[in-house]
Amino acid sequence: MAFGLKERGGRARARRVSGGGSGLAVAAAPTMLLGRLQEARTLLALRPYRLLFTARVLSLTGTAVAPIALAFAVLQLNGRPDRQAGSLGLVLAAGMLPRIALLPVGGVVADRFRRDRVLVATNLTCALAEAVTVVLLVTGAARLWHLAAMSLLCGTAAAFAMPASESLVAHSVPDSLRYPATVLLMAAQNSVKVGGPALGGVLIAVAGSTWLIAWDALTFIASAVLLARIGSAPASSRRPRTAGALPGREPAGLIRFLVDLGEGWIDLRSRPWLCLLVAHAAFVAPIWMVGYQLMGPLYSARHLGGAGPWGKAMAAFAVGLLAGAAAAFVMRPHRVWPVVCASTAAQALPLGAMALRWPVPALIGATALAGVGTALYAALWGPLLQQELPPDRLSRAVANSAIAQLLPIPAAYLLAGPATHLFGPRTVMAAGALALTLAAVLPPFARRIRTLTLIPSRPGKAAGRTPRQTA
C-alpha cells in the first residue's frame, strides 16, 4: 500500500512538472519565434544565400505560370479538338523525358564544375528556349514540333539545374544554418506556388499565353545575372584514385565521367539508410501522384459535379505546403522516422476521403494536411543529405535519389487506367490509401531509419560519415 501511495504521489508530481513544463513551453513560444525570425534575417544578410534566394524565387514566378501558358499555346496552335490532348501530351513528354534520363548526368556535372556556373548556363538555356518560343508564336511561324523541341531543351536544362541548385544551398551558408536556409527557401517557393497557377490563369485571359512565356524568359535572365554574382567555389577538387590507375594519374574523358557516374550509385548503395528512404519514397510517390493527378480530377468530375471542388482541394494542398514549410522552420524535427510516417499518413488521407465519399470540406481539409506532410518531409530531406554526404558527391546523391523516385511514376500512370477500368475508381483509391497507410507504419520497424536523426548544427563534422543514430 505504501508503495502504491508513493507511486500515486510520484505520478501527481510528474503531472505537476509536466504541466509546468507545458506552461514554460507556451511562454517560450514567442521568444522562439522571434529567434527564428532573427535567424531568417541573418540568412538573408549573407550575400551568397541572398542572391541564391532571390534568383530561385524570381525564376519561380515565371516557372509557376509557364506550364499553363504553354498548355494554352499548344491548344490554340492545334485547333482540332480530337488532337489537342495528343499534342499537349507530346509537348509535356518532350519536357519530362530528358529530366528523368539526364538527371544522373546532371548530378555528375554539378559535382564536377562550379554549381553557380552550371545554374547560370541552365537559366540562360531556358531563357533562350522561351524567347524562341515567344518569337515563333508572335510571328505565327510556330509549329507543334517547334514547341516540343523548345520543351525538350528546357527539360534538358532542368536535369542539370536541379542537382546543382539543391546542392548550392549547402555552400552558400555556414553548416549550422543549412537546415533553416533550406526550409526558408522552400517556404518562399511554396508561397509563390500557392498563387502562381491561379494568377497565371487570370493573366492568360488578360494578356494571352505568349506574354507569360516572355515573362518566364525574362525571369530566367534575371536569375542568371544574380547567380553569376554568387562566386561559389567548386565542391571539391580532390578525388579518390580509380582502381587500376597509376599513382598520380586521374581518369580522363569518358572514363572519368563513367567513374563519377558509378560513384554516385555506389554512394547510394553503400548507405542502407539512404537506400531504405529512397525505396520508401519510390513506393509512395507513384501512388500519391496517381491519386492527386489522375484519380482526384476523375473523382471530382464524376461525383462532385465538375472541376471546381478539386480545384479548391489543389489550392488547399498548396496552402498546406506553405503551412508545412513554416512549421518546419519553427519546429526543427530531430528524429527522421516520425516525419516520414506522418507525411506518408497525411498523403493517404485524400485517397481515403475519396474512397469513403467524404463531403467536399473534409476532402479539402485532407488535401491540406497532405500538403503539410509533404512539406515537412521535403524540409527534412535536403538537410539530411547535406549532413550525411560528402560535398563533392552531394549533387549525384540528389540526382540519383530523385530519379529513383521519378522512374516508377510513368508506369503508375499507365497502369492506373486499366486498373480503374477493371476494378473501378473507388477500389483503386481505397487500395492506394491502404498502401500508403501501410507505408506509413513500416519505417519504425527498420532500425536504420528508426535511429536516424537530423542534427541541424554540426560544425566541424566530417562529411560522409555514418548517420548519427540514437538508441
Q: How large is the radius of gyration?
A: 24 Å
Helix vs. strand class: mainly alpha
Largest sheet: none
Report the mean per-residue pLDDT as an integer.
Answer: 80
Describe this structure in words.
- The protein has helices spanning 2-45, 47-63, 66-77, 81-101, 103-112, 115-139, 144-172, 178-207, 209-227, 253-269, 272-303, 308-331, 337-355, 360-388, 394-406, 408-423, 425-441, 447-450.
- By secondary structure, the chain is mainly α.
- The protein folds into two domains: 39-175 and 200-227, no CATH class; 262-450, MFS general substrate transporter like domains (Growth Hormone, Chain: A).
- Pfam families: MFS_1.
- One of its GO terms (molecular function) is transmembrane transporter activity.
- It is found in: Cell membrane.
Summed up, what is this model?
This protein is an all-alpha fold. The protein is 80% helix and 0% strand.
